[in-house]
Amino acid sequence: MNTEKTVANDNVISTIKRVGIDATTLKWIALIAMVIDHVAAVFFDHEAAAYFVFRAIGRLSFPIFAFLITQGYVHTRDRNKYALRLLVFAVISELPYDLAFCNSIYSFKKQNIFFTLLIGLLVIRLMDYITSELKMPKWVVENEMVVLVQSGLQMMAILAICFFAHKAHLCYTYPGILLIVLFYSFRERTDGIVWPNVMFSFMYGKVQLFGMAAIIPLSLYNGKPGNRKYKWLFYIFYPAHLIVLWIIHKYR
Predict the structure, then answer these.
(1) Ranges under pLDDT 50 in the chain
(2) Roughly how many angstroms between the first and final C-alpha of the chain, as a whole number?
(3) Which of 40, 171, 201, 241 is the 20 to 30 A CA-CA neighbour of 97?
């Protein structure tokens, strides 16, 4: 009887995943959560209960965006163009970001999320380069130390970039970079959605613990890209909504 129930439950989950949440739907979920988060950050008193609730909801956005970066890296036809798009919109978004959150046209207090996503993308590209393209010295090959040396180089690169992320005040700093690395490294595992999210939530701490709820929509991801006609909208929306929030806050 229990076996039949288990099989039935597995079939339901399989069906939901097959028809369920594609990449476009995940982006809409992350986008809505992000706007809720930013509304609270710009307009609400930090001591208000609504501020905490809105920020808690907003914690869903970054894990989803980080996961989609790894999916974009795996499935894109041109990784260089993908990285270039992120760089262009990182630069475009910095002024709106500084205006919305620092009320300044120039601030180094924190950099916008596109920079974090871009650096995360470059890290996993570097990881692949080390394992697939970097030529190992002859003595390493002869002593069958290739995997050990590659792992060591990857670890040093990740640590160096995480240090840079911290010093450059990237959004979510080094835990954000590590989340992208973990999603990519665990992508073939059945628990590849759960553990990266849990580890990131505890690394970043506090209200980000609510971000573990992102495990639910991510677990229902069916691997499909969804409607591509919204591709540029998701890039443009980020700086555009920050400008709108700043204008409302300044002139209300």
Answers:
(1) 13
(2) 62
(3) 201
